[in-house]
Amino acid sequence: MANGRTAREIKSIRNEAVVALKMLYPTALPAEQLMRSLLGLFPALEWEYFRRDLAYLCEKGYLQRVVAEREADERLTPWRQRWFRLTSRGVELADHLIDDPAMNP
Amino acid sequence: MSRQRSEEPVEAQEAQGPTAARGDGKSTGCEAHTGREEKRSRRGPTLKQTQAHRACLKLVGAVLNDALGALNQAPREGDRVGQGAYYCVLCDLFDALRGAVNALPLAKITRVSKIIAEQRRAETASRRVDLAVRLAALAQKGKGAAYDGTLRPVPGYFDEMVRQIYGVGLDAGAAGDGEKLNDE
Q1: Do B116 and B82 form a contact (C-beta atoms < 8 A)?
Q2: Which architecture, in CATH terms, is A7-96?
Q3: Complex ipTM
Q4: Interface of A with B in 11-70 (CB under 8 A)
Q5: Chain B contacts of A83, Cβ < 8 Å?
Q6: What are the tens digits of pLDDT across the range A19-49?
Protein backbone atom coordinates (compact mmCIF):
# COMPACT_ATOMS: atom_id res chain seq x y z
CA MET A 1 0.00 0.00 0.00
CA ALA A 2 1.45 3.35 -1.02
CA ASN A 3 -0.42 6.62 -0.74
CA GLY A 4 -3.67 4.72 -0.36
CA ARG A 5 -3.07 2.78 -3.55
CA THR A 6 -2.24 -0.87 -3.83
CA ALA A 7 0.92 -1.97 -5.62
CA ARG A 8 -1.25 -3.59 -8.27
CA GLU A 9 -3.08 -0.33 -8.95
CA ILE A 10 0.13 1.63 -9.18
CA LYS A 11 1.66 -0.82 -11.61
CA SER A 12 -1.52 -1.02 -13.70
CA ILE A 13 -1.70 2.73 -14.07
CA ARG A 14 1.98 3.03 -14.97
CA ASN A 15 1.60 0.18 -17.41
CA GLU A 16 -1.39 1.72 -19.10
CA ALA A 17 0.36 5.08 -19.35
CA VAL A 18 3.27 3.39 -21.12
CA VAL A 19 0.96 1.38 -23.38
CA ALA A 20 -1.10 4.48 -24.24
CA LEU A 21 1.99 6.38 -25.31
CA LYS A 22 3.20 3.36 -27.22
CA MET A 23 -0.02 3.38 -29.26
CA LEU A 24 0.70 6.99 -30.18
CA TYR A 25 4.46 6.58 -30.61
CA PRO A 26 6.35 8.62 -31.77
CA THR A 27 3.77 11.25 -31.00
CA ALA A 28 4.07 13.10 -27.71
CA LEU A 29 1.09 13.92 -25.55
CA PRO A 30 0.52 16.44 -22.75
CA ALA A 31 0.10 14.98 -19.29
CA GLU A 32 -3.40 16.41 -19.09
CA GLN A 33 -4.58 14.53 -22.18
CA LEU A 34 -2.83 11.37 -21.10
CA MET A 35 -4.51 11.44 -17.73
CA ARG A 36 -7.91 12.19 -19.23
CA SER A 37 -7.61 9.19 -21.50
CA LEU A 38 -6.61 7.01 -18.54
CA LEU A 39 -9.57 8.25 -16.53
CA GLY A 40 -11.70 6.13 -18.85
CA LEU A 41 -10.03 3.08 -17.33
CA PHE A 42 -9.21 4.34 -13.85
CA PRO A 43 -11.98 6.73 -12.79
CA ALA A 44 -10.47 7.14 -9.34
CA LEU A 45 -7.12 8.27 -10.71
CA GLU A 46 -5.92 11.44 -9.02
CA TRP A 47 -3.70 14.04 -10.59
CA GLU A 48 -1.16 14.25 -7.78
CA TYR A 49 -0.50 10.52 -7.90
CA PHE A 50 -0.40 10.47 -11.66
CA ARG A 51 2.14 13.28 -11.68
CA ARG A 52 4.36 11.20 -9.43
CA ASP A 53 3.95 8.25 -11.78
CA LEU A 54 5.04 10.39 -14.71
CA ALA A 55 8.06 11.67 -12.79
CA TYR A 56 8.94 8.11 -11.85
CA LEU A 57 8.65 6.88 -15.44
CA CYS A 58 10.83 9.78 -16.61
CA GLU A 59 13.49 8.98 -14.04
CA LYS A 60 13.43 5.35 -15.09
CA GLY A 61 14.08 6.46 -18.65
CA TYR A 62 10.83 5.16 -20.11
CA LEU A 63 9.33 8.56 -20.75
CA GLN A 64 10.95 11.67 -22.07
CA ARG A 65 9.74 15.19 -21.72
CA VAL A 66 9.35 17.13 -24.95
CA VAL A 67 9.72 20.87 -24.64
CA ALA A 68 7.44 22.66 -27.04
CA GLU A 69 8.67 25.75 -28.83
CA ARG A 70 6.12 28.00 -27.17
CA GLU A 71 7.37 27.15 -23.68
CA ALA A 72 9.35 30.22 -22.72
CA ASP A 73 10.86 28.62 -19.64
CA GLU A 74 10.44 24.87 -19.48
CA ARG A 75 10.86 24.81 -15.72
CA LEU A 76 7.84 27.02 -15.23
CA THR A 77 5.48 25.00 -17.42
CA PRO A 78 2.78 23.39 -15.28
CA TRP A 79 2.96 19.63 -15.16
CA ARG A 80 -0.44 19.26 -16.80
CA GLN A 81 0.82 21.10 -19.87
CA ARG A 82 4.10 19.25 -20.18
CA TRP A 83 4.53 16.98 -23.17
CA PHE A 84 5.77 13.43 -22.83
CA ARG A 85 6.71 10.79 -25.32
CA LEU A 86 7.97 7.27 -25.01
CA THR A 87 11.70 6.68 -25.23
CA SER A 88 13.14 3.75 -27.16
CA ARG A 89 13.55 2.01 -23.82
CA GLY A 90 9.91 2.67 -23.05
CA VAL A 91 8.89 1.12 -26.36
CA GLU A 92 10.96 -1.93 -25.54
CA LEU A 93 9.25 -2.20 -22.19
CA ALA A 94 5.80 -1.83 -23.73
CA ASP A 95 6.66 -4.49 -26.31
CA HIS A 96 7.85 -6.76 -23.52
CA LEU A 97 11.36 -6.90 -24.97
CA ILE A 98 12.91 -5.89 -21.69
CA ASP A 99 11.77 -6.82 -18.23
CA ASP A 100 11.30 -4.57 -15.24
CA PRO A 101 10.06 -6.18 -12.02
CA ALA A 102 8.81 -2.81 -10.81
CA MET A 103 6.45 -2.66 -13.77
CA ASN A 104 5.31 -6.27 -13.61
CA PRO A 105 2.13 -6.58 -11.58
CA MET B 1 5.65 -13.31 -30.29
CA SER B 2 5.13 -12.36 -26.72
CA ARG B 3 1.96 -10.77 -25.49
CA GLN B 4 1.63 -7.11 -24.81
CA ARG B 5 2.96 -6.25 -21.39
CA SER B 6 -0.12 -4.75 -19.81
CA GLU B 7 -2.53 -7.47 -20.84
CA GLU B 8 -1.14 -9.54 -18.02
CA PRO B 9 -2.48 -7.58 -15.06
CA VAL B 10 -5.87 -7.32 -16.66
CA GLU B 11 -6.03 -11.05 -17.18
CA ALA B 12 -4.99 -11.58 -13.62
CA GLN B 13 -7.80 -9.33 -12.49
CA GLU B 14 -10.23 -11.21 -14.66
CA ALA B 15 -9.17 -14.45 -13.05
CA GLN B 16 -9.97 -13.02 -9.64
CA GLY B 17 -13.41 -12.04 -10.81
CA PRO B 18 -15.00 -8.62 -10.84
CA THR B 19 -15.82 -7.00 -7.55
CA ALA B 20 -18.40 -4.38 -6.77
CA ALA B 21 -19.32 -2.24 -9.73
CA ARG B 22 -18.85 1.48 -9.53
CA GLY B 23 -22.07 2.20 -11.40
CA ASP B 24 -21.51 5.93 -11.80
CA GLY B 25 -23.20 5.92 -15.18
CA LYS B 26 -20.50 8.00 -16.82
CA SER B 27 -19.20 6.98 -20.20
CA THR B 28 -15.91 7.83 -21.85
CA GLY B 29 -14.97 8.21 -25.44
CA CYS B 30 -13.40 4.81 -25.60
CA GLU B 31 -16.48 3.14 -24.24
CA ALA B 32 -18.43 4.76 -27.01
CA HIS B 33 -16.40 2.66 -29.43
CA THR B 34 -17.44 -0.55 -27.76
CA GLY B 35 -21.06 0.34 -28.25
CA ARG B 36 -22.14 -0.24 -24.67
CA GLU B 37 -21.18 0.85 -21.22
CA GLU B 38 -19.64 -1.77 -19.02
CA LYS B 39 -19.56 -2.12 -15.30
CA ARG B 40 -16.33 -1.11 -13.67
CA SER B 41 -14.74 -3.14 -10.94
CA ARG B 42 -13.28 -1.44 -7.91
CA ARG B 43 -9.95 -3.18 -8.41
CA GLY B 44 -9.48 -1.90 -11.92
CA PRO B 45 -10.74 -2.08 -15.47
CA THR B 46 -11.96 -5.29 -17.01
CA LEU B 47 -10.23 -6.98 -19.89
CA LYS B 48 -12.84 -5.76 -22.37
CA GLN B 49 -12.56 -2.18 -21.18
CA THR B 50 -8.81 -2.27 -21.45
CA GLN B 51 -8.91 -3.80 -24.90
CA ALA B 52 -11.44 -1.24 -26.10
CA HIS B 53 -9.33 1.57 -24.65
CA ARG B 54 -6.21 0.31 -26.38
CA ALA B 55 -7.99 -0.26 -29.68
CA CYS B 56 -9.31 3.28 -29.49
CA LEU B 57 -5.88 4.74 -28.77
CA LYS B 58 -4.33 2.64 -31.50
CA LEU B 59 -6.72 4.08 -34.07
CA VAL B 60 -6.19 7.60 -32.77
CA GLY B 61 -2.43 7.11 -32.94
CA ALA B 62 -2.62 5.79 -36.49
CA VAL B 63 -4.71 8.74 -37.65
CA LEU B 64 -2.53 11.32 -35.88
CA ASN B 65 0.68 9.83 -37.19
CA ASP B 66 -0.69 9.62 -40.73
CA ALA B 67 -2.06 13.15 -40.69
CA LEU B 68 0.58 15.00 -38.70
CA GLY B 69 3.52 12.63 -38.65
CA ALA B 70 5.52 14.72 -41.09
CA LEU B 71 5.33 17.73 -38.80
CA ASN B 72 6.35 15.67 -35.81
CA GLN B 73 9.35 14.10 -37.51
CA ALA B 74 10.66 17.35 -38.94
CA PRO B 75 13.87 18.53 -37.35
CA ARG B 76 13.11 20.97 -34.56
CA GLU B 77 15.60 23.58 -35.64
CA GLY B 78 14.49 23.51 -39.24
CA ASP B 79 10.75 23.60 -38.86
CA ARG B 80 9.72 25.44 -35.74
CA VAL B 81 6.49 26.70 -37.20
CA GLY B 82 5.49 23.18 -38.19
CA GLN B 83 6.35 21.88 -34.74
CA GLY B 84 4.40 24.67 -33.07
CA ALA B 85 1.36 24.01 -35.21
CA TYR B 86 1.65 20.31 -34.49
CA TYR B 87 1.61 20.87 -30.75
CA CYS B 88 -1.14 23.44 -31.12
CA VAL B 89 -3.70 21.20 -32.81
CA LEU B 90 -2.63 17.79 -31.54
CA CYS B 91 -4.47 18.00 -28.21
CA ASP B 92 -7.72 19.05 -29.87
CA LEU B 93 -7.45 16.33 -32.49
CA PHE B 94 -6.60 13.74 -29.87
CA ASP B 95 -9.65 14.62 -27.78
CA ALA B 96 -11.92 14.73 -30.80
CA LEU B 97 -10.73 11.40 -32.18
CA ARG B 98 -10.99 9.79 -28.78
CA GLY B 99 -14.58 10.96 -28.55
CA ALA B 100 -14.03 13.17 -25.52
CA VAL B 101 -15.37 16.22 -27.34
CA ASN B 102 -18.01 16.36 -30.03
CA ALA B 103 -16.72 19.15 -32.21
CA LEU B 104 -13.36 20.16 -33.57
CA PRO B 105 -12.27 23.79 -33.07
CA LEU B 106 -12.39 24.49 -36.80
CA ALA B 107 -11.67 28.21 -36.43
CA LYS B 108 -8.45 27.45 -34.57
CA ILE B 109 -7.35 24.78 -37.05
CA THR B 110 -8.10 27.10 -39.98
CA ARG B 111 -6.05 29.86 -38.37
CA VAL B 112 -3.13 27.53 -37.76
CA SER B 113 -3.24 26.14 -41.29
CA LYS B 114 -3.22 29.68 -42.72
CA ILE B 115 -0.17 30.55 -40.61
CA ILE B 116 1.61 27.42 -41.83
CA ALA B 117 0.73 28.18 -45.46
CA GLU B 118 2.08 31.73 -45.15
CA GLN B 119 5.22 30.51 -43.47
CA ARG B 120 5.79 27.86 -46.13
CA ARG B 121 5.36 30.44 -48.88
CA ALA B 122 7.89 32.75 -47.26
CA GLU B 123 10.34 29.88 -46.75
CA THR B 124 10.04 28.80 -50.37
CA ALA B 125 10.66 32.32 -51.63
CA SER B 126 13.71 32.85 -49.42
CA ARG B 127 15.06 29.43 -50.39
CA ARG B 128 14.83 30.38 -54.08
CA VAL B 129 16.75 33.60 -53.44
CA ASP B 130 19.40 31.75 -51.43
CA LEU B 131 19.79 29.23 -54.19
CA ALA B 132 20.18 31.95 -56.82
CA VAL B 133 22.80 33.72 -54.73
CA ARG B 134 24.75 30.51 -54.21
CA LEU B 135 24.60 29.66 -57.90
CA ALA B 136 25.84 33.12 -58.77
CA ALA B 137 28.70 32.78 -56.29
CA LEU B 138 29.62 29.41 -57.74
CA ALA B 139 29.51 30.75 -61.26
CA GLN B 140 31.74 33.62 -60.26
CA LYS B 141 34.16 31.25 -58.58
CA GLY B 142 34.23 29.04 -61.65
CA LYS B 143 35.37 31.92 -63.80
CA GLY B 144 38.31 32.37 -61.48
CA ALA B 145 38.26 36.10 -61.90
CA ALA B 146 39.12 38.14 -58.86
CA TYR B 147 37.59 41.56 -58.48
CA ASP B 148 39.85 44.03 -60.21
CA GLY B 149 37.95 47.19 -59.39
CA THR B 150 36.17 47.53 -62.71
CA LEU B 151 32.40 47.79 -62.74
CA ARG B 152 30.61 45.11 -64.69
CA PRO B 153 26.96 45.01 -65.78
CA VAL B 154 24.60 43.45 -63.22
CA PRO B 155 23.40 39.97 -64.24
CA GLY B 156 19.76 39.67 -65.33
CA TYR B 157 18.64 37.45 -62.47
CA PHE B 158 19.92 39.94 -59.91
CA ASP B 159 17.17 42.35 -60.86
CA GLU B 160 14.60 39.60 -60.36
CA MET B 161 16.08 38.75 -56.95
CA VAL B 162 15.88 42.35 -55.82
CA ARG B 163 12.32 42.54 -57.09
CA GLN B 164 11.36 39.46 -55.05
CA ILE B 165 12.94 40.76 -51.88
CA TYR B 166 12.01 44.45 -51.99
CA GLY B 167 9.04 44.44 -54.34
CA VAL B 168 10.69 46.79 -56.85
CA GLY B 169 13.46 46.19 -59.35
CA LEU B 170 16.76 47.97 -59.83
CA ASP B 171 15.31 50.18 -62.59
CA ALA B 172 12.93 51.84 -60.16
CA GLY B 173 15.80 52.89 -57.90
CA ALA B 174 17.83 54.24 -60.83
CA ALA B 175 14.86 56.21 -62.13
CA GLY B 176 14.22 57.66 -58.68
CA ASP B 177 17.84 58.79 -58.34
CA GLY B 178 17.68 60.38 -61.76
CA GLU B 179 14.61 62.34 -60.86
CA LYS B 180 16.23 63.49 -57.64
CA LEU B 181 19.28 64.73 -59.52
CA ASN B 182 17.13 66.54 -62.01
CA ASP B 183 15.18 68.22 -59.22
CA GLU B 184 18.37 69.48 -57.66
Answers
A1: yes
A2: Orthogonal Bundle (1.10)
A3: 0.77
A4: 11-12, 15-16, 18-20, 23-30, 32-33, 36-37, 39-43, 68-70
A5: 87
A6: 989 988 888 888 988 998 888 888 888 899 9
